Amino acid sequence: MRIEKPTKSRLAAAITLLTLATALTLPQVARAETVLRIGMTAADIPRTLGQPDQGFEGNRFTGNTMYDGLTGWDLSSATKASVVIPALATEWAVDDADKKKWTFKLRPGVTFHDGSAFNADAVVWNVDKVLKQDAVQFDASQVGVTASRMPTLVSAKKIDDMTVELTTKEPDSFLPINLTNLFMASPTKWQALFDKAEGADAKAKSQAAWAAFAREASGTGPWKMSKFTPRERLELVKNDAYWNKDRVPKTDKMVLLPMPEANARTAALLSGQVDWVEAPAPDAVKEITARGFKIEKNEQPHVWPWQFSRAEGSPWNDIRVRKAANLCIDREGLKDGLLAGLMVPASGTFEPGHPWRGKPTFEIKYDLKAAQALMKEAGYGPAKKLEVKTQTSASGSGQMLPLPMNEYLQQALAECYFDVKLDVIEWNTLFTNWRRGVKDPSANGSNATNVTYAAMDPFFALVRFLQSSMAPPVSNNWGFINNPKFDELVTKARTTFDATARDAALAELHAASVDDAAFLYVAHDVGPRALSPKIKGFVQPKSWFVDFSPVSITP
Amino acid sequence: MFVYIARRVVYVIPIVLSVALVCFLLVHITPGDPLVAILPADASQELAQQLRVAYGFDRPLPVQFGLWLWRALHGDLGSSIATGRPVLAEVMKAVGNTVTLAIAAAAIGFTLGLFFGLIAGYFRDTWVDKVATSIAIAGVSVPHYWLGMVLVIIFSVQLNWLPAVGAGPGGSGSWAWDWEHIKYLVLPAITTSVIPMGIVTRTVRALTGDILSQDFVEALRAKGLQETKVFRHVIKNAAPTALAVMGLQLGYMLGGSILIETVFSWPGSGLLLNSAIFQRDLPLLQGTILVLALFFVFLNLLVDIAQASIDPRIKRS
């Protein structure tokens, strides 16, 4: 066999070819698709047709990503409270003569992912999809998660192509906040699917069209659907034509994977199958950080409370008892011990710095002596303990670690002469009773309930619990609170239309509720998530939601 | 044989109807609101009532059952409350994924179970028996979800050899029988196989030992039959019972394991049931239970027929 020695000219040719090949390859490397893979806590992909299910995790992943509302949330800061900002509406105002009518000016030049224009007709169509029962696009399955979050909106009317008028059933200054929950789906896309749909009647065709729309979603959001495998994965690609150029995603593709089991999510992260997991297993946090992953967390608008019964004969009717319970809990001990740092001690529904916090005079903190003194003043002591019963669940959305946390409270309150009985029931049963109230037999004789709540907007954070007219069966005033001062302040807040003055009224209401020790305020969740060190640009706001647009990932 | 099969098929009809009734009642008597997936607790009573009417939950239970059964008999199991997607399509896709997992697990579990059972029975009371029996007891005793987690920690997290979760790089929709996909199947299949492996080992060991002590085996040996041929007779005599046990185990595996499929995020019927339970998605829950129960019933039917064809004494009885 003859082996040829490379000549100089051959070497030069080889080097040239190699350089050329490298030069040709380099731009491809630079253009390599960046993919962000996220393990969600949801057991299924939240609904993709515009109004997601599965609570605010649904809105986080399939609502705010593919869709926009008329208003949205400012998610740009980790330190300031997340507030409502313009989204598909640029400005809005209530009618001076009729406070039930609002005018919303729409953002020009916005298009849906299918290329059709966003305009006033689209807004009316989207309001009708959940509120107008005789509209062809009316979809009962989207009503529950939407109408309950904008309880006073009744209709929408087109004024001109870029202006709509929204009407509420009563004056309600919270409307712009509530509208963050109504996502704009493309009527043009839906109509095309409706025209192609098969069904015995218009209702059947409408249902088929919505089912098809869920597979071929079209909104105006910064992410577009590219591939959807029900129950397994949703792939979103960036929307280069997004109307807000500052929020065009920095990652090419985002893959969302449902992983309901915390250990499975953690294993997927540690083995490199995903780059980001929601709510990692708390006992794996040390290993996660030891391997170079980051744990991101921040105070969420979420409250882990005991909601007291204020029905006749309830021991919680004595304000000294309510205050004593609030002073008897060492929240820092709970945080550093049981929760491994994954909570913020609660001193109300809102913490200092929030525009709706106000200036309560009753300071919620750990003060065992003051708590014991209050209980003695109320007639209790080591020889005469106060028996209370609290309903809770063994698990559930937002409940954190309900059983160990309640046992911690049980032990702590025993120091203040409480004898706490826990009635542990299944999560959905607890949730159902929450709607029915303390007087329903399903309360099982309890005089407090432990259902956590989201505090994103004033109706959900305050009004539904504090206003007397919100008692069951209307809403979640589970314990039948009936405080004329609260009612007066709710009305004041709802009918104050200047945003700053409205916030001041809400702050007054919140301060009044803390001063009344309306709840046993225990903790705020911190929405922990574990991120690969390859992820840059992530900001965790004080919100249930996050903005995926500024997130980048090195391939 | 035909009469035997026909009689067995007729027996199936009341069983299927009973299964349908029980699964309908079971999901309806559980506490909680069937509309919880689409109706937040803060929704007004007016809205709740509006949706209850829209979904037909305001009707009396017998009427709801009658309508559901009628539609089910026509192949329509309704639509999921949570997703709006047809239940039958959801269930069949999930069952398909569970069948993939069950077949892989059965291949591992039954092969090992038969092997360990036969050698343990043949070499009874020797160290071989003790080792095989220990493996069987471990297989039956170790909680499989725990084993799954341990396997994930070793082979996914520490060694990074196999994926921890999922059913393929692009999901089960793009499943292919190549290593890129099969590697997703390895850990869940091994985890699923340990219990059937243990049960089959113990059953076959007991059968083999019992048959070997019978007179006809002595007679065969006395006639000078080779030991391999004697063993073939032993296997044939053990087969009907072993087949019945393996059929039942396959039925359990086809039913899906909520725990294993949740640990591995394997999109099978167990994970579907888990999701339906937590979302109180009654149509999906009813449909999944019904389809799985029917699988079990028909699998038993097939096993009965197979047993009868192997052992003529069964059909005579």
Task: Please specify the SSE layout and strand pairing.
The complex is a heterodimer of chains A (555) and B (317).
Chain A (H helix, E strand, L loop, with lengths): L7 H23 L4 E6 L14 H9 L7 E3 L10 E3 L2 E6 L6 E6 L13 H12 L8 H8 L5 E8 L2 E6 L6 H4 L8 H10 L5 H14 L7 E7 L3 E6 L14 E6 L3 H9 L5 E3 L6 H6 L3 E3 L5 E7 L10 H9 L3 H6 L7 E2 L22 H10 L8 E8 L8 H13 L3 E8 L1 H10 L11 E2 L3 E2 L3 H9 L17 H11 L4 H17 L3 E6 L4 E3 L3 E2 L15 E2 L2
Parallel strand pairs in A: 1-10, 1-11, 15-16, 15-17
Antiparallel strand pairs in A: 2-3, 4-5, 5-7, 6-7, 8-9, 9-10, 11-20, 12-20, 13-17, 13-18, 13-19, 14-19, 21-22
Helix pairs in contact in A: 6-7, 10-12, 16-17
Chain B lengths: L1 H28 L15 H10 L6 H13 L13 H36 L4 H15 L2 H15 L20 H34 L2 H8 L4 H28 L3 H6 L5 H10 L3 H29 L1 H5 L1
Helix pairs in contact in B: 1-12, 4-5, 4-7, 4-9, 4-11, 4-12, 5-7, 6-7, 7-9, 9-12, 11-12
